Amino acid sequence: MQDRHIGDVRVMRIEEQMGPGFPAKDFFPEFDADTFAAEQHWLAPGYYQPESGKLMTSIHSWLVRTGKYTVLIDSCSGNHKPRPGMPRFDMLNTPYLDRLREAGVQPEEIDFVMCTHLHVDHVGWNTRLENGKWVPTFPNARYVMSRTDHDHWAAVAKRPDSVPYEVNTYNDSVLPIVEARKAEFVAGEHAMCGCFKIKPAPGHTPGQIRLDLESRGKRAIFPGDALHNPVQVPLWKWNSRFCDDLDLARKTRNTLLGDCAEQGALLMPAHFAPPHAVYVKAKGDRFALDWDFDNARGRVS
Ligand SMILES: [Zn+2]
Q1: How far is the CA of 62 from the centre of ligand 1 (A)?
Q2: Which residues, other chains included, contact 41 with Cβ-Cβ below 8 Å and sequence gap of 6+?
Q3: Which of 58, 114, 125, 152 registers the highest number of CB atoms within 10 A of its CB?
Q4: What local confidence, expressed as pLDDT, does residue 3 receive?
Q5: Handedness of CA 21, 25, 27, 32 (dihedral sign)
């Protein structure tokens, strides 16, 4: 399993799913065939599957060991969860927890679960089914989430006209955490665990947060879904169809990429296909990818 080091902090990727996801033309509201075609020479086949027109998508968590704390960033889709109309997330049965154990961590050892936002593919393993009830998968963890996002999705879950899979997501993966008094709500910027800074990154959802990691002068940024596919680095104005506020999401993406370039931070999103993380270079008002190939081959810095 791939291991990365950011200073003294160890980061591993825990995979839930990897494969073709949504068609590119349906996924990006700003999709333009000619603009996309100009990027295809590097996108295919790793990040885009030309024969199906689909984007290659990973769904994973980042497991972070600081020496003192064990932190899980985003918890994928979960098992046995009804997600009507969303086959990729519906009634899954994946060996996600086995992969976590293979990485050397038992669920009981997780100290913090960081929910960058409360979408279906980021909160699923917050809970697991036990005797017909949804219980916290990580019994000793505090689950950190944005107050704004929580209140938004709690309201969505109560509205009679809401999309059923979104109602289920809140009710089976977030509400049981709140009821078990394991939720930690945040607003604004916060320092955490001696190496993280939580920062607002709204737009994809109303209260999305990003996590900036620093250890011994090395940096990484976990942006949640501020972007989904590497094509959104050069084409940073392109949103996803799941972005709530397109203008705000674009602004947040621009800030994020600027910060990565300026700080030399490794960008570690939730859905990039291998090698899953990338450095960013700025050229005027444009951004370019600088793949973290050395780390991908296991030669950690
Ligand atoms: Zn996502």
Answers
A1: 13
A2: none
A3: 114
A4: 87
A5: positive
> How far is it, in rounded angstroms, from Cα 138 to Cα 176?
12
The predicted-structure confidence for 31-70, as pLDDT tens digits, reads as follows 999 999 999 999 999 999 999 999 999 999 999 999 999 9
Taking the centre of ligand 1 as the mean of its atom positions, its distance from the CA of residue 225, in whole angstroms, is 5
Is residue 301 domain-resident? no
Confidence of residue 2 (pLDDT cuts 50, 70, 90): confident
Within a 10 A sphere around the Cβ of 67, how many other Cβ atoms?
12
- CA–centroid distance, 270 to ligand 1, in Å, is 6
Residue with the bigger pLDDT between 297 and 17: it is 17
Supply the DSSP string of 162-215, one letter for each residue.
Answer: S-HHHHHHHHHHTHHHHHTT-EEEE-S-EEETTTEEEEE--SSSTT-EEEEEEE
Ion ligand 1: residues, CB within 5 A, are: 121, 225
Distance 58 CA to ligand 1 centre (A): 9
The angle that helices 164-173 and 147-158 make with each other, rounded to 10 degrees, is: 120
Burial of 222 (0-12, 13-18, 19+ CB in 10 A): buried
Q: What's the pTM value of the predicted model, to 2 decimals?
A: 0.95
CA–centroid distance, 237 to ligand 1, in Å, is 18
Range of the domain at 268: 3-296
Which residues, other chains included, contact 169 with Cβ-Cβ below 8 Å and sequence gap of 6+?
81, 83, 118, 119, 120, 123, 124, 153
Distance, CA 80 to ligand 1 centroid (Å)?
18
- Domain containing residue 46: CATH number: 3.60.15.10
Q: How far does the centroid of ligand 1 lie from the alpha carbon of residue 139, in Å?
A: 24
Per-residue pLDDT reduced to its tens digit, 110-122: 999 999 999 999 9
How many domains does the chain contain in total?
A: 1
